[in-house]
């Protein structure tokens, strides 16, 4: 899994390596709750299910997948925090 998009700078990095589904997505969600729209989160995970879970989570909750990279068993996603989500409140 890799795209041709440039890797953006991350405001926050979540290390979810070694955690299994659904924990990588839940860790990302928890951090996104404290971020403002437009900020970028980098999620690092080794769970094979994250390849499906992370893009689905982002799409369903209004976040944008900016780039993806994988090396060995580790995958990384850069997510831009969306402006609104049913599960992530808007910032004031």
The percentage of residues in β strands lies in 25-35%
> How does the helix and strand content classify structurally?
alpha+beta
- Globular, elongated, flat, extended or rod-shaped: what is the shape? globular
Distance between the terminal alpha carbons, to the nearest Å? 36 Å
Largest sheet: 4 strands, mixed
Q: What's the number of extended β-strand segments?
A: 4
Mean pLDDT: 90
Helix content: 10-25%
Q: Which strands sit side by side, in order, in the main sheet?
A: 1-2-4-3
The unreliable regions are: none
Rg over alpha carbons = 12 Å
Please work out how many helical segments DSSP would assign: 2
Encode the helix/strand succession as letters: EHEHEE
Short description:
Helices cover 24% and strands 28% of the residues. The protein is an alpha+beta fold.
Describe this structure in words.
The chain is α+β, with helices and mostly antiparallel strands. About 25% of the residues lie in helices and about 30% in strands. It has two helices and four strands; from the N terminus they run βαβαββ. Strands 1-2-4-3 form a four-stranded mixed beta sheet, covered by helices on one side. Strand 1, helix 1 and strand 2 form a beta-alpha-beta unit. The radius of gyration is 12 Å and the shape is globular. The model has no long low-confidence stretch (mean pLDDT about 90).
């Amino acid at each position: 899994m890799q795209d041709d998009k440039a890797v953006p700078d991350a405001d926050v990095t979540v290390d979810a390596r070694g955690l299994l589904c659904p924990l990588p997505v839940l860790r990302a969600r928890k951090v996104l709750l404290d971020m403002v729209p437009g900020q970028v989160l980098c999620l690092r995970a080794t769970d094979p299910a994250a390849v499906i879970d992370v893009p689905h989570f982002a799409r369903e909750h209004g976040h944008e997948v900016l780039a993806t990279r994988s090396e060995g068993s580790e995958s990384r996603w850069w997510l831009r925090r969306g402006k609104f989500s049913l599960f992530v409140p808007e910032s004031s």
